[in-house]
Design brief:
Shape: elongated
Largest sheet: 5 strands, mixed
Helix content: 10-25%
Number of domains: 5
Number of helices: 11
Radius of gyration: 39 Å
CATH topology of the largest domain: Rossmann fold
Distance between the termini: 74 Å
Strand order of the largest sheet: 3-1-8-5-4
């Protein structure tokens, strides 16, 4: 009969405490030592917790092995007897010893068990003796237990002791009244002998003292009462009473353990959260320090604004792992508004990372018909963005996704993404896409008066090109399939916001109006980011050549400056394609013109407001050159591989309209453009 009872007592150490629901505390055996340690045990004992004692008692004089009686008391369960072990070993003569092993044998039932205590760090010679306490080995009342000690590895040093564990008589009786207004508990002692009473925090094996300001142990005469204050009303707050004489039986009552409605509001105030989250490891980590052995459940949630009163939206499937009150979750974009929600019973608490700085930042500006995202990141990461339309406080991302990456080992710098403005009032969602959990940041452009001018300029160009297409459709409309799917590689120098807006507008008209397969780095950021700018350019040039397409080089005054810089680099022996797409394009064109004597498949065009024929360098003047918008029909004919359109196409009025639009747009202020060669696009 003894074995089932003892096993049941041992299993109590593994079971959740009653009345706590999800995330309840689990009682674990405790090992206290005066050195950094870890502990293991066999299957008859739950996995023990090893730590340094918060208030160490008087040390034993080594060598010593001391056995004492203790009680395992769980709320709503009868107390069980158990055996407490204290030992002390001299440091001298234990060189090379890495740990200790305690062996337990309960005589009569022959139930056996073992506990190992390992030293985490090397002990210096001459250090203090080993002092270890183990709470505690469960025993059936009336049984004798034999305890023996040996070292790991075995150095021939042994100690053994035995102890008869007797049943403890019932403790004294008392009653209590909760005084919430006074934040105190009144303990009433019935007529009879005096009792020593106190409030304590029950940790299964011991009821530990409250913090110093609230610790009171009072001798109360029979028939009298005393009011004991507490700091926080927590589930492990208990009342303990005993007779004044030494080794008196004790009575304990924990009135709030199964009353979450009472302690819920104060539970989280008693917990201290230590933030160890790190962006470099993409890990959120928090360690809890609490008066009670809580094991709450932790999941992720995100706040729209950085305010403690703001609601925190749950992130699905984001439960953190827990070990020794340490909660960790990997593959997280650590952000001050991406937080842990701790849940215990029917209460919860949101704790956000304690650092306000972020590993990356993003800003938004408007370039014509483009939204420019500038991302700066202190760590290697991939970022995605998507347009969205705000409706009822929500903004759901829409396809396609735009992605840019800062690879491992790359130097810190600015990344740029360009997104087309599909509808005025569009917003953008931006997030890290190389992690599992990330908060989506919502950015909406500030379409001020200055930005309206740029939008109007780009929209006007689109309107003019559309009118030209309709005006001249009878003269130079391509035959069925002549341009559909035919590739056009569009190259440019990103030297001004105005030029960039016109480039994007023309590319969109060629794609939507004529069905051209336009290849533009602004629309290919995914491919550019994966393969690199230069491999992407050479691959596109090869594809255009195989499919008899055209390379359209849009020139500007800024292109002239970059061309001169490129030629100086070539003269100095620096590879001309070592920096950006524009330099690589010049190197490619230079090679083709040197081989064939002319740039076959290359066409040059410029916007008359931003450039003049004199700005085209002499080495490039053999290329077919078109002035926009006046010679737009001729450019379209060149793209389909036919001679320029006849002069029947009426273009003077439309050309004048575009000139006026360019004049208007030239006076608009603009932010600095991205550096040449920056990957950007869809």
């Amino acid at each position: 009969m003894g074995r089932p009872v003892l096993l049941a007592a041992a299993l109590l150490l593994l079971l959740p405490l009653p009345g706590t629901g999800v995330g309840a505390a689990i009682t674990r055996l405790r090992v206290s030592a005066n050195f950094e340690c870890r502990a293991t045990a066999d299957s008859t004992l739950s996995r023990p917790r090893c730590r340094r004692p918060s208030r160490p008692g008087p040390p034993l004089k080594p060598p010593a092995l001391s056995l004492g009686r203790a009680r395992l008391c769980l709320p709503s369960q009868p107390c069980q007897p158990c055996l407490r072990v204290r030992l002390a070993l001299p440091a001298a003569g234990l060189g090379g010893v890495r740990g200790l092993q305690l062996n337990f044998l309960e005589l009569g039932s022959n139930r056996a068990g073992w506990l190992q205590v390992w030293r985490r760090r090397h002990r210096a010679p001459g250090s203090s003796p080993w002092q270890v306490q183990f709470d505690c080995f469960p025993v059936e009342s009336g049984r004798q237990v034999l305890v023996s000690l040996r070292t790991i590895p075995d150095r021939g040093f042994t100690l053994s002791r035995s102890r008869l564990v007797t049943a403890e008589p019932p403790g004294p009786l008392f009653t209590h009244v909760w005084l919430p207004e006074e934040r105190a508990i009144e303990v009433r002692v019935p007529p009879g002998p005096a009792l020593t009473v106190r409030l304590c925090h029950q940790l299964a094996l011991e009821c530990e003292e409250l913090p110093r300001l609230f610790h009171r142990q009072v001798l109360v005469p029979g028939g009298r009462s005393v009011s004991l204050p507490y700091e926080f009303l927590v589930p492990c707050l208990c009342i303990e009473a005993s007779y004044p004489h030494h080794d008196s039986p004790r009575s304990k009552h924990c009135p709030f353990y199964d009353q979450p409605a009472a302690y819920g509001p104060e539970l989280w105030s008693s917990v201290r959260f230590h933030d160890y989250s790190t962006s470099s490891k993409d890990q959120m980590a928090m360690v809890l320090s609490a008066s009670c052995p809580l094991r709450p459940r932790a999941t992720l949630c995100w706040r729209e604004v950085a305010a403690e009163t703001a609601p925190c939206h749950d992130v699905p499937n984001s439960t953190a792992s827990e070990e020794e009150q340490a909660y960790t979750l990997d593959k997280v974009d650590v952000h001050p508004q991406l937080c842990f929600r701790f849940s215990y019973g029917n209460s919860s608490h949101v704790e956000c990372p304690h650092r306000s700085e972020t590993a990356w930042n993003v800003s938004l500006s408007v370039w014509g018909l483009q939204l420019c995202l500038r991302l700066t990141s202190g760590i290697p990461a991939a970022f995605s963005a998507a347009l969205c339309q705000r409706q009822g406080g929500q903004c759901e991302p829409e396809a396609p996704l735009y992605t840019v990456t800062r690879p491992e080992g790359s130097a810190p710098g600015e990344l740029v993404l360009l997104l087309p403005v599909q509808v005025l009032g569009s917003c953008v969602l931006v997030w890290r896409s190389d992690v599992r959990f990330a908060r989506k940041q919502l950015l909406c452009p500030d379409v001020s008066r200055r930005h309206f001018g740029l939008l109007g300029l780009a929209l006007g160009l689109g309107l003019v090109v559309t009118v030209l297409l309709l005006n001249c459709r009878g003269t130079w409309r391509p035959a069925d399939g002549a341009l559909h799917g035919r590739p056009v590689l569009l190259l440019y120098s990103p030297d001004s916001e105005e030029h960039l807006g016109l480039v994007c507008a023309l590319a969109e008209r060629l794609r939507a109006g004529l069905g051209c397969d336009v290849r533009l780095d602004l629309w290919e950021a995914g491919g550019v980011g994966r393969t690199g700018a230069l491999p992407w350019l050479y691959a596109q040039r090869g594809r255009v050549g195989r499919q008899r397409g055209t390379v359209l080089l849009l020139w500007s005054r800024g292109s002239t400056r970059l061309f001169r810089r490129w030629r100086i680099g070539v003269a100095d022996g620096v590879p001309g394609d070592a920096h950006d797409i524009f330099g690589a394009a010049m190197a490619c064109l230079h090679g083709e013109m040197g081989t064939a004597g002319h740039g076959g498949g290359w066409v040059l065009a410029y916007f008359s407001r931003l450039c003049s024929p004199r700005d085209v360098p002499r080495p490039l003047r053999p290329l077919p050159t078109y002035r926009l918008p006046r010679q737009l029909p001729g450019l379209l004919g060149a793209l389909r591989g036919s001679p320029p359109a006849p002069r029947r196409c009426r273009r003077g009025r439309v050309g004048g309209l575009l000139h006026r639009l360019l004049e208007t747009g030239a006076g608009e202020g603009s932010p600095s453009p991205p550096p040449p060669g920056v990957a950007a696009g869809t």
